[in-house]
Amino acid sequence: MIPIVDSQYLRSAGRDVEVPFRIRLEFNDRPAELICSEVLRVLPEKRLVCFSEWNGRPMVAKFFLDPASAKRHCAREERGITALKDAGIKTPDLLFKGMLPPDNAPVLGLQRIMPAQDLLTAWEQSGDSDLRAKLLSRAAAVIADQHEAGLKQDDPHFKNFLWTKDDLFTIDGDAVNTRNMGRPMAIPESLENLGLFFAQFYPRFDGLIPRAFRLYAEKRTWPVDDDLSARLLKNVFSQRNSRKRAYLKKIYRECSAFVCQKAWNRFMVCDRVFYNEAMVRFLADPDHVMNAGRVLKKGNTSTVTMVEVNGQNMAVKRYNIKNARHAFKRSFRPSRAWISWRNAHRLASLGIPTPRPIALVEKRLGPFRSTAYFITKYVDGIDAYSLFHSDGASEINQESIVTLFGQLFRLLAGTSISHGDSKATNYIVAGNELSITDLDSMREHRFKGSFRRAFRRDIARFMQNWEDLPEVSSMFRKEIDKTTKKL
Questions:
Q1: Range(s) for CATH 3.30.200.20 in the chain?
Q2: How many CB atoms lie within 10 A of CB 338?
Q3: Which residues of the chain does CATH 1.10.510.10 include?
Q4: 43 vs 46, 154, 174, CA distance in Å?
Q5: Spelled out in words, what is the top-level CATH class assigned to the domain 258-377?
Q6: Calpha distance 471→487 (Å, rounded)
Q7: Domain 382-484 is in which class?
Q8: Considering only CA atoms, which of 414, 410, 426, 406 is closest in space to residue 478?
Q9: H or E stretch including 245?
């Protein structure tokens, strides 16, 4: 039996809404019933979006739950949908508007586009650069239509677009700004909004922007010249930096992506995807689980262990306190685990490969920090030093691995990031993938001069690993020269 719930339950359940559920509402002064089968998005106590069924018809239900703002947001959603329709921009049809007892919270029923993927999923599943260029260009064309109609999405992110085999739909009418509807958007505002959209792609895809911008400009009947392109790219870089700074603040607090707990003796933050009962027990006492795990590295300043939590292999790096003097020095500044957590998310936000960060734990005494733990997904591979110095080194495709390093160093150079401890043991090779680890000395540089000096030190340290392997050293030198010559 599928339970019947009301707005009070949906509001009090927070992120823990259990599906399926039935909901009864008033629609055109008649009772109606929805069956909700999957939660798509939840803003606790404010909004809930679900895949639903109404009279046997699949649809998307949007529940507006915040008593203070529900009517306003619902009206904005309706207004945005109408504006998109009037401009000839494809968006799901509004099927009905109802009221949810006991407090008449508004509900909108929207057409469910099937089959469809949000643009982010379609992008990630495509390894084809031509298809990615097509996706980007189609999105740019839709944004051009919005801007020409005087509409703009205040936050034009991937998930505000649905991709089907032949069409791209704009969704989330609440995010559509209609204040200047009917008047084509001016160039500065257009470039800013388009730059915000492009800024969400990793820097390595920036080469796809010119083609997409040409299509955008054609739809706006703009001449594409070097000045406009340069202004757009400047906006992209500026917006990307702003987004990154905002994201790096978010990783230390409770939000939709992270669970965060602060107490006088402990600080913990964990990726919500991995937060479950087994993870709660592990984070409460990491040492207990580490003692049963496989030791990967044991040193005075840090210990690395592979553990299994809820069927997931994870690497736990514990930053040890050596003595009272060391404890005093470390207690007043961010722990190395704190820095590694930030740098791992910095790399991930830029599309630079590193093991996925899962959690950070610090033992504290008020404001003073002590032993800390940094937890990531375990990458089942071998470090580059061991790989090239192994007995089977001659049997591996050394050139392809060297090429992976060249690509990685170019990504780091393109984002002005230096590693700070570029030993070959800090790079993990797993099949055709390369990951960078040991991030507590990593730094993102504001000035090109300081980056160039730090990057050259990284390369010098990296090349020391191959002094006894002249052929390998020569391959790495030729590949790295492609990057250093451009600095």
A1: 4-111
A2: 20
A3: 117-250, 382-484
A4: 5, 18, 14
A5: alpha beta
A6: 25
A7: mainly alpha
A8: 406
A9: helix 226-250
For 292, counting Cβ atoms within 10 Å of its Cβ (0-12 exposed, 13-18 middle, 19+ buried), the class is exposed
Sheet holding 294-298, edge to edge: 258-263, 266-271, 357-365, 368-377, 312-319, 302-309, 294-298
Cβ atoms within 10 A of the Cβ of 201, count? Answer: 19
The torsion angles phi and psi of 264, rounded to 5 degrees, stand at -65, -25
Mean pLDDT for each 10-residue chunk of the chain (487 residues)? 92 93 86 93 95 93 96 96 97 94 93 94 87 93 98 92 92 95 96 96 93 96 92 95 94 95 96 97 96 91 95 95 60 88 97 97 89 96 96 90 96 95 96 95 95 96 96 96 81
User: One-letter amino acid identity for 367?
Assistant: P
Both structure tokens of 298:
């044991």
Architecture field, domain 4-111: 2-Layer Sandwich (3.30)
In contact, 415 and 203? CB cutoff 8 Å? yes
CATH number, domain 117-250, options 1.10.510.10, 1.25.40.10, 2.120.10.80, 3.30.300.20? 1.10.510.10
